[in-house]
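Archive transcription. Copying these from loose printouts into the bound notebook so they stop getting lost. Printout 1 of 2:
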Amino acid sequence: AAQASPKVYGQINISAEAYEKDLDGSVKDEEYTRMLSNASRFGVRGEAELTATLSTVYGIEWEVAAEGDDITKGTNASLDLTQRNRFVGIKHQEFGTVKMGKYDTYLKLAQGKVDLFNDYNADMQFTIAGENRVNNVLGYESPKFMNTQLNVMSQTQDVAKGSKAGSSLSIVHNNEEMGLYVALASDMNVD
């Protein structure tokens, strides 16, 4: 359990869109307008100092249907909130952070700011694999050394694909002064 002075944060991102779909002529073309909530969210996070070098960290976040529609369709169509990242962990200044819960894999986080249309219909998640937020994970994030960080995550066997535990790892080099960002990452057997 973690208890610390919380920081409440969030964003409301709503777009008004006009949509036109040109079909092949055998079917009538479609046109309509809509309001869309683009991953609007709110959350609470915190860090509490235990010693001079050790602290607890936590975070919990929800996606909200800011335009008024339900976030999910089908059997859960009454939901106005859905789960996003949620974790608790221990952070050491010299040895890094260990955290557990549900959160983005290190492959997803390795994209940095490359996804220019994040949270919109042109989001990378609709064209390539790797936009995973997974349950039941234990992760380690190293401290940054010469602008480089190593991250390793393991997903418990009960929720991973198949009979093996899932895993995610990344090595990220981010030198902002030089404008250089390089990442190598992978997800394996995550569900």
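Printout 2 of 2:
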Amino acid sequence: VHGDTLFVRANVALTELGDPKSLGPLAGMLDGRQPVVIGGRLEMAQPGLLAFHVTQLTVNELKLPARVIEKIVQRISVRARTDSVAPGAVPLRVPNNVADVRITRGQVVLYKVVP
């Protein structure tokens, strides 16, 4: 966590991000498994569902432009897509008793529903 941005690191097969040819000339430089860092903001979309708005995507130290990020996010989240999550966000399921989420002081804070 840095500021209000959550970063997630993984070693990902580029085919998981969609058709590598969609990266254009970059596809020739990147293949197989690559270290990936995804950064973005979290917000509650509805009870039981967070929206992870991706603002940064780095593949093997190569920072991708916003237009490419948008295309990749649409591809990786197509199976979990709902109307309550914006097209540029990845839907994340959480327990229904989570009322809100905030990123503050280097921590992700989940607020629960109070009956």
